[in-house]
Specification:
Number of helices: 6
CATH superfamily: Porin
Helix content: under 10%
Number of domains: 1
Radius of gyration: 24 Å
Shape: globular
CATH topology: Porin
Length: about 525
């Protein structure tokens, strides 16, 4: 009860302090420079007991996040029609009793939760330079979104994403992407109604800007049943691996055009595999990827190392409008050549060099890495539902969106894993479907919404019912529940040797009640 009272008290305290701030803070114009941004409070409370290696952790009702974020954005008009833009963000985390408990049990290593989750970053700083009438050159730290999907990316692979503090639940992808330093040229071809985009990242970023970052340090969003387990203590990041060196350049090219009533794009991207892989330490009998292990391969000091190998992606998107059915549709295809997967030694696929010790003691993908060509597809329909005005009393038709995702391993073999440390066998086809239903009341100031998804292949899903209230032009208050479920045989219950699990089984025990209060200025 005390934690729930604290949750409410913190919400009220932030609202009062932000109300005081709102009378003083607004967008600022300093001649050619304009400054705006937001201050945001994220809070969440456990609705279930999270799962660690020993079973359920008694933390239901505990405050799992109390996070304050200040973001400043500025732009300046320079001579010769050059535009400069910058974004800086600072986040502060409170060491809640729940996070301290995880830390004391082994999470975060020598860091405190405040240091692990808190950060300061100049997220973007770039120049937009027009060259003639048809070329726009953008130089500096920036982010570029490719593709048509909202949730599970097929073509949106230019950047990695930081899921460590909020998992995939944050609705604004731009807040989770990791901006990188690159040259971005957009060249218009008006005669053929198209645009050519060229990207080049020279590799000047910090090493941790590549790939997706997950909470593998045992924190609040670590997968079940690995709460409290700090993986990098025995499996450090290896950003200098020859097949995935963070300093190596990445690049891409995309043609975006219009063909009659259809919009389309064709793209090629040379980048890092979005998800981390475990490169096996040969000392334990596994095979190092491409024969390269950057740590001491004669020592048992590391079980493996975390790497992000390079991949090549060919992409295609298409979108249009169905007049007869009154909906907008879009689709995307991403073909990945030699996509890497962790593997375990299983019957019928005895990974070469994987000893019985590894098979019995480290069974969840530590034997090595194998490659398979992959085809990822997405199909999406967006439609306005007029009947909700009579049925639900909405002021305008509700927005409805459905997205179907499929991943096809063209060279599938038994023993391939989605992520290391998880015991499921990757199937040849895996399918996810997501739905969004968004309604509106009070002239758009009150927005109830339901986002849900289902794992068609492995079972389980998630649901995020929420309500957003905008009392003024600057304020946004959002209350949501983050709910997960899995098939019974997908649940861990703390058993790290369980033989079957999948995406939503990893979220077992992670149900949350979350409150987000934002003041935009």
């Amino acid at each position: 009860m005390t934690n729930k009272k604290n949750y409410i008290a913190l919400s009220i305290a932030f609202a009062i302090s932000a109300e005081t701030l709102s009378s003083q803070v607004n967008a600022v114009d300093l001649g050619p420079i304009q400054i705006d941004g937001f201050i945001r409070q994220h809070m969440s409370m456990n609705l279930d007991d999270p799962i660690g290696p020993g079973g359920a952790i008694d933390a239901k009702g505990d405050l799992s996040m109390n996070r304050t974020t200040l973001q400043l954005e500025w732009s300046a008009d320079l001579p010769m029609d050059i535009l400069f833009k910058g974004v800086a963000r600072k986040s502060w985390e409170q060491n809640t009793s729940y996070l301290r408990g995880l830390n004391e049990a082994g999470a975060f290593g020598s860091e405190s939760p405040r240091d692990y989750y808190g950060d300061f970053e100049f997220r973007e700083f770039y120049f937009e330079i027009p060259v003639g009438d048809r070329v726009l050159l953008t130089l500096g730290k920036q982010q570029v979104a490719w593709g048509e999907s909202d949730f599970f990316q097929a073509m949106d692979l230019v950047h990695g994403f930081d899921y460590s503090w909020r998992s995939f639940l944050e609705p604004a992808n731009e807040d989770l992407r990791k901006p990188v330093i690159m040259a971005n040229a957009q060249i218009d071809f008006p005669k053929v109604d198209g645009q050519l985009q060229l990207l080049y990242r020279p590799g000047w970023d910090n090493d941790d800007q590549i790939g997706n970052t997950y909470d593998v340090e045992g924190g609040r969003w670590s997968n079940a049943p690995w709460k409290t387990v700090n993986f990098p203590a025995g499996d450090p990041y290896a950003y200098g691996h020859s097949e995935g060196d963070a300093d190596d350049p990445t690049y891409g090219v995309r043609w975006n055009g219009q063909w009659g009533d259809y919009g389309y794009s064709l793209a090629y991207l040379h980048t890092f595999n979005p998800d981390p892989l475990m490169n096996a330490n040969p000392a334990f009998g596994g095979e190092a990827y491409k024969g390269v292990y950057t740590n001491d391969s004669t020592s048992f000091s590391t079980i493996g190392e975390i790497i992000f190998p390079m991949i090549d992606v060919l992409g295609f998107t298409l979108n249009g409008y169905s007049e007869s059915n009154d909906f907008v549709w879009s689709t995307e295809f991403a073909y990945i050549k030699d996509s890497p997967f962790n593997v375990s030694a299983v019957e019928g696929n005895p990974t070469p060099g994987c000893s019985p010790f590894v098979t019995g003691g480290l069974p969840h993908g530590f034997c090595g890495i194998q490659e398979s060509d992959v085809l990822r597809t997405m199909f999406r329909i967006d439609k306005n539902l007029a009947f909700t005005q009579d049925l639900l009393g909405t002021e305008k038709p509700a927005f409805f969106s459905v997205q179907l995702f499929n991943t096809w391993l063209l060279d599938h073999e038994d023993g391939m894993k989605i992520l290391v440390g998880q015991p499921e066998d990757r199937k040849e086809h895996s399918t996810l479907v997501t739905f969004i239903l968004s309604t509106s009341y009070m002239n758009g100031r009150l927005i109830p919404e339901l986002v849900t998804g289902f794992d068609v292949t492995y079972g389980g899903g998630f649901a995020v019912p929420s309500i957003t209230y905008a009392p003024g032009n600057h304020w946004r208050v959002k209350l949501e529940a983050d709910l997960f479920w899995a098939d019974g045989n997908m649940e861990h219950g703390g058993d790290v040797t369980a033989t079957d699990s999948a995406l939503f089984g990893w979220f077992e025990g992670n149900d949350q009640l979350a409150l987000t209060v934002t003041y935009q200025f």
